[in-house]
């Protein structure tokens, strides 16, 4: 259709609504029956055209909705407008062709889906049954049915193989189960379409045979062992009977040679016979020994009694000695302590006396030094006295010289007064010299007086010094005598102290020795007690020994040698 | 005489047969076994197994929805 003839069709609109072909707008249709007479020819054409278009529109609309049997009405097919008539025919043909195709397609798809669902569930026997006019769909149907057939055949083949395998496995499994129960006669199938199953059957049968053979071997061995065991049991029973007789004391039995090749049993029989022989000798020896033991035990028992009595006496003596020694030790300790105190006191006094003696020595030394000083002073005073006398002599000489100078000066003055002016000056000098000489005489006289006094004092001092020195010497003699006395005392103290020290040491040693002695006595006591206990135990042991030897005797007598 | 029940629903060939074979060694002669399955070849497979193993099928019950219950005499 040309573009200028194109008609816009609203497929969803109601075909009863009239369409304005010029504008495409809907308009209210006019009632043809009541008003056709009023239409002009042009209007009638337009009306027919509109009705035809509406009819075609309606048919297309219904087709699109799924009504594949709809057709354009005969009025439209006989329409006066050729174009519309052709269009109506075309629409009818198109609906008829397309509708059929769509119907076949729908039918085919539904059937295919149904069959595929069955296949999905495992059913492969269904096939597409419908016949289709459309060659394409018919071809598709054939293809699907062929695939289904091939698929079904494949599944059947797989199932058959799987089942063959499963059944073969079941048979082998059952056979293995029987073998595991000890049924070795069962045979697994060795012929199968499946090579693996055939080999498996062969393997199972071979394994079963091997096991069966091994079991037969083991059973044979067991039988042999059982026979050996029975023979052994018989031999052992025989030996056991003999051993029972031996255990009851009958040593007059002998194990006979056994009907067995078991070395141990043979050796056992020999060993028992040897043992019985040895036992016989032993029992005989035992009997005589027991007899000796019994008599010896009685002797030992009585000796023990004596030992206990003596030991008890020793304990008593030891106990007394221990008490005495303990007392002696206590008094020795006391003496040692006293001696120690005396020694300590003596030592302490000896210190003081020695100190005093030393002090006295120092005093004597000082007195001696003082005496020396006094002696020296006296000597010096004597020397001073001699010097004073020498000075006195010198003063006498000075006095004589001064008298001579005075006389000489008097003469000079006399001579000078006779010599004029020059002599006057000399006379002055001479007078001065005379005066000096007078002064010298006077002074020397004064010195002489003083010196005389000094000499007297010195003489007094010397006398006093001598007297003092005498006294000091006397004191020194006394002090020396005292010193000697103190020295003697110190010596006596030394001797006493040493003596006390020795006494102290000696008593200490005595105390220690005494303590040791006490300990020794205590140990002797303990030892004696232990000895008594030991002897008592020994007594019990001997009593038990006698009892045992009696039992032994009794037992040894049970043996029939 | 005890009845042993084997449930093989949902199992496909040859699983039901293998399950039956596994269980069979524990079932003493004379006992009954009921095996149920819904595999399309279930009945055929069980028949084949019984024939091969020398067991007798006593009854086959159709339980609907492709399900079958087979009674076997051991």
Question: How are the elements arranged and paired?
Answer:
The complex is a heterodimer of chains A (561) and B (74).
Chain A (H helix, E strand, L loop, with lengths): L17 E2 L6 E2 L4 H4 L5 H24 L9 H4 L4 H40 L13 H46 L14 H53 L15 H155 L2 H139 L3
Antiparallel strand pairs in A: 1-2
Helix pairs in contact in A: 2-4, 4-5, 5-6, 6-7, 7-8
Chain B lengths: L2 E6 L6 H10 L7 E6 L4 H12 L2 E9 L2 E7 L1
Parallel strand pairs in B: 1-2
Antiparallel strand pairs in B: 2-4, 3-4
> Roughly how many Å apart are the termini of chain B?
10 Å
Strand order of the largest sheet of chain B: 1-2-4-3
How many domains in all of chain B?
1
The shape of chain A is: elongated
The CATH class of the largest domain in chain A: Mainly Alpha
Distance between the termini of chain A: 153 Å
Summarize the helix and strand pattern of chain A as letters.
Answer: EEHHHHHHHH
Biggest interface found = A-B, 14 and 18 residues
Mean pLDDT of chain B: 93
Strand order of the largest sheet of chain A: 1-2
Q: CATH topology of chain B, anyone?
A: Translation Initiation Factor IF3
Principal-axes geometry of chain B comes out as globular
Uncertain parts of chain B: none
List keywords for this structure.
heterodimer; A: mainly alpha; Helix Hairpins; 8 helices; 83% helix; 1% strand; disordered N terminus; B: Translation Initiation Factor IF3
Describe the structure.
Chain A is an all-alpha fold. Chain A has 3 domains: 3-123, no CATH class; 157-231; 266-558, Orthogonal Bundle (Helix Hairpins), CATH 1.10.287. Chain A has helices at 32-35, 41-64, 74-77, 82-121, 135-180, 195-247, 263-417, 420-558; strands at residues 18-19, 26-27. A two-stranded antiparallel sheet of chain A has the order 1-2. In chain A, helix 2 packs parallel to helix 4, helix 4 (82-121) packs parallel to helix 5 and helix 5 (135-180) runs parallel beside helix 6. Chain B has 74 residues and is of the alpha+beta class. Chain B is 30% helix and 38% strand. Chain B is globular and about 30 Å long. The mean pLDDT of chain B is 93. The interface between A and B is medium-sized, with 14 and 18 residues.
């Amino acid at each position: 259709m040309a573009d200028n003839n194109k008609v816009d069709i609203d497929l969803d609109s109601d075909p009863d609504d009239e369409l304005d072909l010029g504008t495409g707008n809907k308009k209210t249709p006019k009632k043809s029956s009541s008003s056709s007479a009023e239409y002009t020819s042009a209007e009638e054409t337009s009306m027919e055209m509109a009705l035809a278009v509406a009819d075609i529109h309606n048919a297309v609309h219904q087709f699109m909705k799924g009504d594949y049997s709809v057709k354009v009405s005969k009025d439209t097919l006989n329409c006066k407008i050729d174009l519309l008539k052709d269009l109506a025919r075309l629409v009818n043909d198109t609906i008829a062709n397309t509708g059929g195709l769509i119907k076949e397609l729908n039918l085919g798809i539904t059937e295919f889906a149904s069959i595929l669902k069955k296949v999905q569930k495992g059913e492969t026997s269904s096939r597409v049954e419908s016949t289709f006019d459309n060659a394409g769909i018919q071809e598709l149907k054939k293809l699907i049915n062929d695939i289904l057939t091939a698929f079904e055949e494949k599944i059947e083949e797989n199932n058959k193989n799987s089942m063959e395998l499963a059944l073969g496995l079941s048979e082998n499994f059952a056979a293995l189960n029987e073998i595991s129960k000890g049924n070795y006669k069962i045979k697994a199938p060795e012929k199968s379409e499946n090579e693996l199953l055939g080999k498996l059957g062969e393997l199972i049968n071979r394994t079963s045979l091997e096991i069966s053979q091994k079991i037969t071997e083991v059973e044979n061995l067991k039988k042999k062992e059982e026979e050996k065991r029975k023979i052994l049991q018989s031999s052992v029973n025989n030996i056991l009977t003999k051993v029972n007789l031996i255990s009851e004391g009958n040593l007059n039995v002998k194990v006979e040679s056994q009907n067995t090749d078991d070395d141990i049993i043979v050796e056992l029989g020999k060993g028992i016979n040897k043992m019985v022989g040895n036992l016989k000798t032993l029992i005989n020896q035992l009997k005589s020994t027991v007899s000796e033991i019994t008599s010896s035990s009685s002797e030992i028992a009585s000796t023990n009694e004596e030992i206990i009595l003596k030991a008890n006496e020793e304990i008593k003596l030891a106990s007394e000695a221990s008490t005495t020694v303990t007392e002696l030790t206590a008094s020795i300790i006391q003496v040692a302590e006293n001696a120690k105190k005396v020694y300590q006191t003596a030592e302490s006094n000896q210190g003081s006396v020695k100190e005093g003696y030393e002090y006295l020595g120092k005093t004597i030394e000082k007195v001696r030094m003082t005496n020396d000083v006094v002696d020296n002073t006296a000597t010096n005073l004597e020397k001073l006295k001699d010097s004073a006398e020498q000075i006195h002599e010198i003063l006498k000489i000075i006095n004589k010289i001064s008298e001579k100078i005075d006389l000489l000066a008097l003469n000079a003055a006399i001579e000078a007064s006779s010599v004029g002016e020059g002599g006057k000056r000399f006379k002055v000098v001479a007078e001065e010299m005379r005066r000096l000489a007078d002064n010298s005489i006077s002074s020397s006289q004064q010195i002489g007086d003083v010196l005389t006094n000094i000499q007297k004092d010195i003489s007094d001092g010397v006398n006093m010094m001598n007297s003092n020195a005498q006294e000091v010497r006397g004191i020194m003699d006394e002090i020396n005598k005292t010193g000697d006395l103190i020295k003697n005392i110190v010596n006596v103290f030394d001797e006493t102290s040493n003596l006390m020290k020795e006494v102290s040491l000696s008593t200490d040693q005595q105390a220690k020795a005494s303590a040791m002695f006490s300990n020794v006595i205590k140990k002797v006591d303990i030892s004696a007690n232990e000895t008594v206990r030991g002897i008592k135990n020994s007594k019990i042991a001997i009593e038990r020994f006698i009892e045992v030897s009696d039992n032994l005797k009794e037992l040894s007598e049970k043996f029939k040698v | 005489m005890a009845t042993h029940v084997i449930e093989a629903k949902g199992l496909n060939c040859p699983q039901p047969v293998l399950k039956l074979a596994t269980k069979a060694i524990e079932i003493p002669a004379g006992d009954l076994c009921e095996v149920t399955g819904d595999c399309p070849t279930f009945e055929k497979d069980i028949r084949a197994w019984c024939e091969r193993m020398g067991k007798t099928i006593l009854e086959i019950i159709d339980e609907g929805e492709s399900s079958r219950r087979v009674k076997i005499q051991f």
